[in-house]
Amino acid sequence: MKIGFIGYGSMGSMILNGFLDSNAISAKDIIVSNRTISKLDDLKEKYPEIEISLKNMDLAKECNLLFLFVNTGEVKNVLDEIKEGLRKDAHIIHISAGLSLKTIEKSFSFKITQIIPSLTSELKEGVSLVCHNGKVNSQEKKFVESLFSRISQVKVVSEEDLDISTDLTSCSPAFMAYIFKGFADIGAARSELTEKEAEEMFLQTLLGTVKLLTENKMSFEEIISRVATKGGITEEGIKSLETDLPLVFDNLFKSTFNKREKLKRDLDKQYNLQ
To answer: What's 123's domain CATH number?
Structure first.
């Protein structure tokens, strides 16, 4: 079975290289196309058996499984371009957050799987979210999920839970990095420490905290109670967080929800046009 990849941007290249590096897919079974073919030079040099296609339609004719690694607004254009050449049993996979299966199904009747990947897959860590439409059979589901299990944990979710799950997984590295940087920067500003020193101290503590959670199986609550002893300094800091953070996080989820709703309305208009 040939597997096609249309697009080779930041996230798509991470996923494809992860599959290859982990031997999830053999290079000889892969066909790749990209708007700028020269961006595939390094991939072809590293994996000479990969086939490069100059036309998306030619790729579609050869592949049972097709990954679309293009911008959200370009997905419909690509599907319109290749639909006449698709095999009868073609299975389309896209990674565009905000583009729901229901929206695509307004215009197309393919087997479709939506994947929400995470930057943490660069380290074979984190969670890849998976959502299949009703046309994907159990064997096809198992194969796709097995691919992503090579570069991350896999969590199958419903469309109803996909948005919040995306905030908790795919978006959260950026959210956490922003929060952590702000914490370290303010610590540096209120002391003689440099920003670099504050970041290094905090990162080492963060790594230790993650290990307590994952290796020692401590809960969030247990860590808080062990450190924030009654009447102590840390407890005062926790009281401040209890007052302010719920509103911050509530506003964060509201803002991402509103952005997705606007995107979905715009995409619904695009996919309703025939």
So the answer is: 3.40.50.720
